[in-house]
Amino acid sequence: MPPQAGDIIEDFTLDDQDGKPVTLSSFDPKPVVLFFYPKADTPGCTIEACGFRDAIDKLKKAGVIVLGISRDTVKAQKKFADKYDLNYPLLADPEKTVCDYFGVIKPKTMYGKLVTGIERTTYLIGPGRKLLHVFPKVKPEGHAEEVLAYVKAAK
């Protein structure tokens, strides 16, 4: 069962696009926006990632840390971050450890074929790693602004 609002999120460490380990608890007590996306440098993921890039100053001003995460390798995350000037950590989870914990890997249809992949989902994690809100089945367009509006309304 994936984590629900109110649950305490297990701590984890994954490498970012520069190969540096990033640990969730290191950001406490700041809120963390953890957004899962299917694959680096694909159309929807680029829209979503660039949306967070463009809203990062407003999100930081609201006191929020942004972390993107996918099953891509460190190398693929680095290429994606560099290509689109992404100004926040992209975490590599090729072993699917964190993806499995959050339950974001689901059966999906792609080009008429059944595949398994990440269902675009965002988690807002608060102080003490308490899960504050889940944004399921995210639409890439305008998602960063949707998260920002939620964070501002929750203050």
What does the secondary structure layout of this molecule look like, with pairings?
Layout: E1 13-15, E2 21-23, E3 32-36, H1 43-61, E4 65-70, H2 74-84, E5 90-92, H3 97-102, E6 105-110, E7 113-118, E8 121-125, E9 131-135, H4 143-154
Parallel strand pairs: 3-4, 4-5
Antiparallel strand pairs: 1-2, 3-8, 6-7, 8-9
Helix pairs in contact: 1-4
Walkthrough of the structure:
A five-stranded mixed β-sheet has the order 5-4-3-8-9. It is an alpha/beta fold and about 160 residues long. A hairpin with a 2-residue loop joins β6 and β7 (about 115-120). The chain starts with 12 loop residues before the first strand and ends with a helix. The longest helix has 19 residues, at about 45-60. It has helices spanning about 45-60, 75-85, 95-100, 145-155; strands at about 15, 20-25, 30-35, 65-70, 90, 105-110, 115-120, 120-125, 130-135. α1 packs parallel to α4 (about 145-155).
Helix content: 25-40%
Distance between the termini: 28 Å
Strand order of the largest sheet: 5-4-3-8-9
* Oligomeric category: single chain
Main sheet, how many strands, which sense, barrel?
A: 5 strands, mixed
Topology, number of strands: 9
Principal-axes shape call: globular
Low-confidence stretches: none
- The DSSP helix count reads 4
